[in-house]
Design a protein that fits this description.
By secondary structure, this protein is of the alpha/beta class. The protein has two domains: about 15-40 and about 270-360, Alpha-Beta Complex (Aspartate Aminotransferase, domain 1); about 45-265, Type I PLP-dependent aspartate aminotransferase-like (Major domain) (Aspartate Aminotransferase, domain 2, 3-Layer(aba) Sandwich), CATH 3.40.640.10. It is built from 13 helices and 13 strands. The model is unreliable at about 1-25 (pLDDT under 50). Bound molecules: 4'-deoxy-4'-aminopyridoxal-5'-phosphate. GO terms for molecular function: histidinol-phosphate transaminase activity; methyltransferase activity; pyridoxal phosphate binding.
Length: about 375
């Protein structure tokens, strides 16, 4: 069962079966996984290919040293304050295994990225779901849920699937509540680059020596989802705990992922460019939705939560079957009547809006 609104989740949701369920033949327009249609910076694929040709039979660096050093330099912290994982996914699991077990509570917002609850279930910890307030994460509600039994507080920011972002004051409020009880807040910033510059409050807090973890990924704005690399930044003892939890899988971040991420960091302008293109296209998509009389939640990310005409499960399957477009039905996530649509290229937006218009004209 997936986490739904109002539920306290204690069983693992089937995270990956959801992905498989929506995998279809090539040729479908993929607007269901929040992928970056622009890909990685130029030169990254060539550098990965070269690495593969030259060093295919040698194990990767289990400590991921070069990439951690590069990230640490960029963030402005020590290398011992950065951990790298096989995507942010793996880090969510490792952080949970390192910090929570039976009898402990992991606090999450309801109806969000299912990896937090799935990891808590593997660790044997109890999940406490906190409702959103008008499609936004409520710092007040989160703070109320953080008691002495809470070990971790996963804050998806910007929030998936609503696309909303917390104010600096809300981030501070959550940090203070965790500092009072000893819980570790984990700010999952998988989509933060799409919000533009000026959203570094959580990283600023790490730089100021406070107790939190910040998760980021190369899968989204960097366009490297296939390669699997994500990173966590936080105090050295928490990072050491992650590295310890990773000990059974020392080579989980493969050579190509390490090389790709390192090469990508050499092109920081890529992020500004992806931000600009995504913002422009998201605004165009939202104007078109308004024009079609379709409601949506204003987003700062590369996806938009859209209210569907009628049943969202039927809407998503008609979109796939009749128009070859994949979107994420949010009914199993506690948002019946909504889908999440990734922001693609201009052509993708046009194709989606034409299909939406046609479904609106022929309701079933
Ligand atoms: N956090 C959130 C909020 C996500 O949406 C995703 C992926 N969809 C992840 C983490 C995992 O990203 P990665 O590809 O780095 O494992």
């Amino acid at each position: 069962a997936l986490p739904v609104k109002g539920d306290t989740v204690s069983r693992p949701p089937t995270v990956h079966s959801l992905h498989h369920e929506h995998e279809r033949a090539d040729g479908m327009l993929r607007l269901h996984c929040n992928e970056n249609p622009y890909g990685p910076p130029s030169g990254v694929i060539a550098s990965v290919t070269k690495e593969l040709e030259g060093r295919c039979s040698t194990y990767p660096d289990s400590e991921v040293t070069a990439l951690r050093e590069a990230l640490a330099g960029q963030v402005g912290v020590g290398t011992d304050m950065v951990a790298v994982g096989n995507g942010a996914d793996e880090l969510v699991l490792l952080i949970t295994l390192a910090s929570a077990g039976p009898g402990d509570t992991v606090v999450v917002t309801e109806s969000t990225f299912p990896g937090y609850a799935a990891s808590a279930a593997v660790a044997g910890a109890t999940v406490r779901g906190v409702p959103l307030h008008r499609d936004r994460v409520s710092a007040t509600a989160l703070v109320e849920a953080v008691d002495d039994g809470a070990r971790l507080v996963f804050v998806c920011n910007p929030h998936n699937p609503t696309g909303t972002v917390l104010s600096p004051a809300a981030v501070e409020e959550i940090l203070r509540a965790c500092e009072r009880t000893g819980a570790v807040p984990v700010f999952d910033e998988a989509y933060i680059e799409f919000a533009g510059p000026g959203f570094d409050h959580a990283l600023d807090a790490v730089r100021a020596g406070r107790r939190l973890l910040v998760l980021r990924t190369f899968s989204k704005a960097w366009g490297l989802a296939a390669l699997r690399a994500g990173y966590a930044v936080g105090p050295a003892d928490l990072v050491a705990g992650i590295m310890e939890a990773r000990r059974p899988l020392p080579f989980s971040v493969n050579r190509l992922a390490q090389q790709a991420a390192l090469a990508a960091l050499g092109s920081p302008d890529h992020i500004a460019e992806v931000y600009e293109r995504t913002t422009r296209e998201r605004e165009r998509l939202c104007r078109a939705l308004t024009g079609l009389g379709v409601a949506y939640v204003p987003s700062v990310t590369n996806f938009v939560m859209v209210k569907t005409p009628g049943n969202s499960t039927r809407f998503a399957s008609r979109l796939a079957d009749e128009h070859g477009i994949l979107v994420r039905d949010l009914a199993p996530f506690g948002y019946p009547g909504h889908v999440r649509v990734s922001v693609g290229t201009a052509e993708d937006t046009d194709q989606f809006c034409a299909a939406l218009g046609s479904l609106l004209a022929s309701p079933r």
